[in-house]
Each structure stands twice: as C-alpha cells, then as structure tokens.
Amino acid sequence: MSKKYALRSISYPYDNHYITTDTDSVYIVEYFDSKSEAEEELKSRLVDDYSSYKKAGNFSSFDVFDGYASEKVLEKASEFYTNKTGEDLSNIEDVLELELSDDEIVELMILLGINEYDVIEIDEEETVYAIWINKAEKYLGQTYGGNIVAFDNKHLRFNSGGLYDQFVGALERYSPQGELSDLSDDPDALLSFINAVKYLHYEQSGEVKYIYTDLIEHSYGYYGNIEELIQINSLLKKPWFEIREFTMDEIEQINKA
Fold first, then answer.
1. Where would you tag: which of 5, 136, 205, 226 has the fewest CB atoms within 10 A of its CB?
2. Helices and strands (H, E) in the chain, number of each type
3. How far apart are the first and last CA of the chain?
4. Cβ–Cβ under 8 Å, residues 133 and 174
5. Tell me: the pLDDT tens digits for 174-201?
6. Rounded CA gap, 241 and 130, in Å?
7. Rounded Cα gap, residues 28 and 120, in angstroms
8. Which residues make Cβ contacts (< 8 Å) with residue 130, sequence separation at least 6?
9. Alpha-carbon torsion 159, 165, 166, 171, what sign?
C-alpha cells in the first residue's frame, strides 16, 4: 500500500482563549507524494502564521500564553529557550522575543501546541470523509469554488471559523424548501425534531417555506458539537447533506478533474 503525506489544518475550541489541548476539528488541506515537499509547505504556513500572530499581538489568545500552559509544555519551552540562549526561562512569553530561523519557528510552534497545521503519513487507501450538499450537487469546498474539504473523521464538530462558516453558508443557501409533507414521509416527526433542536426552524418567506438554521448564533464564540444535525437527514426524503466515504486517492482524483 503506497504512502502519501497529508497537510492537515487543525482547529482549537475557543473559550476566552484557544484550548490547544483539544484539537477535535482536523481536515486535510493538501496531499504530497514527497515528505520533504509536505514539510516545506508546513514550514511556509507556520512561519506565516507566526509572523501574523507576532505582528497582531495575538499569542495571548492561546491558552499557553494566558496562564494555562501545562507542565509538559513549560518544560519543553524552557529546554528550547535554554538551548537557544544558555539561560533559564523565567516567563514563557520570553520565547517570543528570540530571534528564530524558520526551522526553529516550526519547532517552537509544534512544541507549544499552537501549530494550526501538521503533516501526517497516510495510506492512499485510508478512509477520509467529505460532505455532499445535495441541492448544490457539490461537496463542501467545491461549493465555494475550491477543492473538496476532506476530513479524517465523520463528526460535525467545527472549531475553524472559516470552514464552519462555509458549512453553515452552504446549508442556508441550499436549504430544503416546501411543505413538510413534500419534504418528509413523516412530516409530524420532522416538525417535532425541528422544534426540539434550538438552532433549527421551519419558516416562511413570501410564498417559500423552508428549513432554516441559525447555527452561527447558536455557536458564537465556540463551535460546539452539532452531530445531532446529521439526524435530520433520516427524516428527509432527500437528505440536506451526506457524509460520504472516500479513499485519499479518490478525493485527490476528483479534485484534479
């Protein structure tokens, strides 16, 4: 079984700061045949992120710089600092004052756990997942003119604001429309489900009736677990969206087409 290398985007939940110990939203951005090519792309992205954080003063938005660094992270940061300066680290923020090479920036971000990308080795036949939006007849990612976004899990948990917004935007743009009896073989069960889920609504605008989601308002500040949204599809004659399985190679071939 041949190997490839996947560059992944990692997102963190937010609750006053980004919680870097919880990386439950991970999706694949790009595939590479060569490990060195993947690592070069990783370096480019992390160095750009580091520069942006430093320019904007955003490091304090991560838990490790907001008083919540674990002992393990503090030990690694201290070792990094001492190896670089020959001195003891008195404050974790001091590592941000070091003059670093690009390779050292990558090393520091990974050991601190604030890297929003990583590289993993993956089998071409390994299962990945993509979200198919039925009315659009496109996958998430394609709905905005890009490549298919491939996930390494089939759970609807988004901590990435941009990706989450894409998903919610696609749901709103391609929402189920019509009478409940046209949308479902069991309209009463569908209405009961909608009423039970606080971010789902059945509304009317002019002559058009449609299912509406206010997920952005529901999850403001923290992109919570919305796996229950998957359940609505079983009540619809035509699912709102589907989570489909692929191999990595199949996704890559579709993106190249």
1. 205
2. 8, 9
3. 23
4. yes
5. 999 999 999 999 999 999 999 998 889 9
6. 10
7. 10
8. 139, 140, 141, 148, 149, 150, 151, 243, 244, 246, 251
9. positive
